[in-house]
Amino acid sequence: MRIVVFGASGRIGSMVVKQGLVQGHQVTAVVREAGRLDVRADRLDVVVADPFDVEAVAKVVAGHDAVLSALGPRAGGRSDVCGRAATTITEAMRRAGVVRLLVVSASGPFVDGGDDPLTRFVVKPIVQRILRESFADLVAAEKTVRGSGLEWTIVRPSRLTDKPATGRERRSLDRNLSFGMFTPRAAVAGEMLRNLDDPATVGHTIALAR
Predict the structure, then answer these.
(1) What are the per-10-residue average pLDDT scores of the chain (210 residues)?
(2) Any residues with CB less than 8 A from the CB of 205 and at least 6 apart, and which?
(3) What SUPFAM superfamilies has UniProt attached to this entry (predicted)?
(4) Could you tell me the residue ranges of all domains in the chain?
């Protein structure tokens, strides 16, 4: 498939790029600054573009089969990156006629019946207070994606780690995972790519954890 990856120089995004190339996809990696992505391949195009510029993003995504966003706030940076980018990317996709969208979010801002009591009543309330701005940004981004009219899938990992994926990570559709405390970034990248052409995940969230 021909895929566009936003946040391609980040820790999840770069793994999406690398794994996508291994799987044989034609990858367009969108970065904010030249030279930030240290990957070279015949099926890779690296594009410098502002993810908040609708016209620029529409030009990038045109002609592709799917868009994957691994964008997130930089440490000490703006707290509205995900929400603003979601607005831009979804509008640009509609203009370009591209409908498949996969987005990384997080399980932290959301509580449901899948959470174990410790997570629901102790861990998440504490984390939600500490990360209230970042979580508010993710909630806003998800609201935009859900209302976009596109064929979206949202991946919600638990706390991210740099440990290798084991292939034994658990996943749940539209429901959090009990005792799902950690998720390898490599597993998040793999989950996004795995669901590229899976119609069963369109219009759903996927909780992911070890």
Answers:
(1) 96 97 97 86 94 97 98 71 96 98 97 94 94 93 98 97 94 96 96 97 97
(2) 105, 142, 153, 154, 155, 156, 173, 174
(3) NAD(P)-binding Rossmann-fold domains (SSF51735)
(4) 2-209
3-state secondary structure the chain: CEEEEECCCCHHHHHHHHHHHHCCCEEEEEECCCCCCCCCCCCEEEEECCCCCHHHHHHHHCCCCEEEECCCCCCCCCCCHHHHHHHHHHHHHHHHCCCEEEEECCCCCCCCCCCCHHHHHHHHHHHHHHCHHHHHHHHHHHHHHHCCCCEEEEEEECEEECCCCCCCCEEEECCCCCCCCEEEHHHHHHHHHHCCCCHHHCCEEEEEEC
**CATH class label, 2-209:** alpha beta
- The pair of three-digit structure tokens given for residue 80, joined into one six-digit string: 């509205």
